[in-house]
Amino acid sequence: MQGMDDEIEQMRTYVETALEASGSHGFDHILRVTHLCEAIGRAEGADMRVLIPAALFHDVARPMEEERGLRHEEEGARVAEAYLGAVHYDPVLIPAVAHAIRTHRYRSHATPETLEAKILSDADKLDALGAVGVARTFLRAGEHGGGIQDAMDHIEEKLLKLKGLMYTEGARQIAEERHAFLMRFVENMEGEMGGVGWRRYLV
Predict the structure, then answer these.
(1) CA distance 140 to 103
(2) Distance between CA atoms of residues 61 and 5, nearest Å
(3) 105 and 162 belong to one structural domain
(4) The domain containing residue 154 runs over which residues?
(5) ∠ at Cα 48 (85, 27), nearest 5°?
(6) Is 122 inside a domain boundary?
(7) Residues 180 and 93 in one domain
(8) Within its chain, how far is the Cα of 182 from the centroid?
(9) CA angle at 127 for the pair 123 and 82, rounded to the nearest 5°
(10) Of the candidates 91, 115, 139, which is a domain's last residue?
């Protein structure tokens, strides 16, 4: 167990260094997703030797997507495979780690086939819901030069749909609570914009 703890700590350090900058997909996002994976994974009986490395590496290639247009789920899987191979991680587990990373994305055309991949997909979506999800949405809008309108569009077009896309029972329960918070936030926005709705008010 101590050996795995040391390996995980080394992975954390590697990913934190690789990400460099913070933001809506910064290292704090990685840690929250990893924590959710731990909680859901233990309840679902997942293989933590697959799930935790996948969670730590799932967004490691975000900077490459921003800089070079590479799909971060594909490049992240490649980075994880290279890193795990270099540190002599159990070679039997590496393909499952890569699969989970490759299929975690909301917009991915690939479907999570394993329990660990489904949990990672759920955890990543859960971090887009609730109070943290709202904060990340406005942070993301600012990162792309947008404002309140852009953030609210993102909530409507993506975040309000996430509750129905969970694979695991544990994630569905968390999603219900976070979705309810998100709905209250949208209602409050409408009220604070004078009762005419945020979209019409801001156009």
Answers:
(1) 22
(2) 23
(3) no
(4) 128-203
(5) 75
(6) no
(7) no
(8) 17
(9) 55
(10) 115
Cα angle, residue 61 at apex, residues 146 and 90 outer, rounded to 5° = 150
Q: Among 22-31, 74-83, 178-187, which stretch is predicted with the lowest mean pLDDT? A: 22-31
Q: Quote the DSSP letter at residue 163.
A: G
The residue among 115, 143, 177 that closes a domain is: 115
Q: In whole angstroms, what is the distance from residue 44 CA to residue 198 CA?
A: 40
Q: Are 158 and 61 in the same domain?
A: no
* CA pair distance 169, 122, nearest whole angstrom: 10
Give the model confidence (pLDDT) of 94-151 as tens digits. Answer: 999 999 999 998 877 789 999 999 999 999 999 999 999 999 999 889 888 888 888 9
Tell me the C-alpha distance between 56 and 16, whole Å. 9
**90 and 168 co-located in one domain:** no
Helix (H, G, I), strand (E, B) or coil at 187: helix
Predicted TM-score (pTM) above 0.85: yes
- The total number of structural domains that make up the chain: 2
Do 99 and 134 lie in a common domain? no
- Degrees to nearest 5, angle at CA 184 with 181 and 185: 85
CB 84 within 8 A of CB 94: yes
Cβ–Cβ < 8 Å for 62, 25: yes
What's the DSSP call for residue 71?
-
Distance from C-alpha of 126 to C-alpha of 138, rounded to nearest angstrom: 16
Tell whether 102 and 156 lie within a shared domain: no
